[in-house]
Design a protein that fits this description.
With about 120 residues, this protein is mainly β. Helix content is about 0%, strand content about 55%.
Length: about 120
């Protein structure tokens, strides 16, 4: 089992920045994917960004160039740096993880472990 706890959500104006954090604990894997996903009320959960053990990252087209996913090995902490935020970026942001065999993709259904989410609200 892997436990994930997100933090750092809040309210910002369009164009602003925010950084989310995710602390992982429990079982560890040498090969893994970790990612960020968001869900707005009434909408499906969508991928934002993923990172794998070797540092490879992938981003949704909608956030590429504005968001950065990174990981700090100590404390097993995952980050999502969000710049130039837009109102459509509003939603509940979830941290997720899974062991891997092949490369990671920004696909929510493939992830096994999930955090409780942290709310991000972007006003215009």
């Amino acid at each position: 089992q892997v436990q994930l706890v997100e933090s750092g959500g809040g309210s910002v104006q369009a164009g602003g920045s925010l950084t989310l954090s995710c602390e992982a604990s429990g079982n560890t894997y040498s090969r893994y994917c970790m990612g960020w996903f968001r869900q707005a009320p009434g909408n499906d959960r969508e991928g934002v960004a993923v990172i794998q053990d070797d540092g490879t990252t992938k981003y949704a087209d909608s956030v590429k160039g504005r968001f950065t996913i990174s990981q700090r090995n100590a404390k097993n902490t995952l980050y999502l740096q969000m710049n130039s935020l837009k109102p459509e970026g509003t939603g509940m942001y979830y941290c997720a993880a899974r062991p891997r065999v092949w490369a990671c993709s920004v696909v929510a259904d493939s992830f096994r472990y999930w955090g409780q989410g942290t709310q991000v609200t972007v006003s215009s």
